[in-house]
Amino acid sequence: MGFFDKVKGQIKNAVQQPQPQQPQQAAPQQHYHQPEPEPEVDQTEEPEFDLAGFDVVNDEESFFNAVLHMESEGQFGGTDESRAEICARFGIRDRSHWHLVKESNYAMLVRKWGSGNEVSQRELNWRQGQMQQAMMGNVAQMQKQGGFEPVEGVSLETWAAMNASIVSGANPEDLLRGQGIDRAKWERVSGEWNARMARDTTFAIAQIYGNAFQAASQGKYSAYAKEANAARAANRDLAMELPLSYEQFYDMMLEQKYAGQKGADPVATLKKQGLSVVDWTDLSAFMGYYFNRTAQRFWPQYQEIHQRLDAKWAAQNPGVDVDIQF
Questions:
Q1: Which residue did the predictor score with more confidence, 182 or 6?
Q2: What is the pTM of this model?
Q3: Domain count of the chain?
């Protein structure tokens, strides 16, 4: 799946040819059989299993890092320099040798973890951790540059918390009055924070805003959202049990998508499901993280759920197309 390649093995069977029996004689003669020549072996042929300098049984992260750099480019991928360093460090001769080494190491990981799906999940989880580290680096850089400086005394966290309260149903006027902020100032503060967020191509501001928004949440799934944020920061699995099954969550997503495509009020659809906007935001944060941490591992089960529920909702809504994304 994706970045998983199965190693190909080759089996050689030696076949013994039965020797014809000699007729009995008073003095049996000794017969010499010329041995068949050994098949010629091309000494330059690549071996069919080569781990190079990797030790994936004890250090799979070094291998995952090599795959990331050797197989991709861009913000989280490799460069000519990083690929050259990896080849030198692990004894990779050329691109052809790398493919053999990659397949061999994946085969060792499958032997260790029991399935290709599990190996793919571990690699995906590692990559998510790398992205999280990069995001935290972006946040630190933004802090140095002053991108988080308060706007007219209102910090990003305060602005996020106030928005969370408004979405949860708080009266905006009462909320602003309690903070000593008039309507004109609120509009200026919101405009500046929204502008900063739009200009920030690293998404550092959006990251901090999202965390602060969910930290201030008082919805029924607020504890789940906080757990998802903590797990993401530590790149670990969730420590809380699911509040509902993945199938139930996906079914709710489809109901909202189809209702929206037909022009229904999204808030009314959520209310029908017994949820507020904040409830759904918090629940989605938790279930979305759970899906990402298990998508490769449980993909056959998820695929069956998707196909079955997609067919159910499509049959109930002929001619309406939806697109589900995580």
A1: 182
A2: 0.76
A3: 3
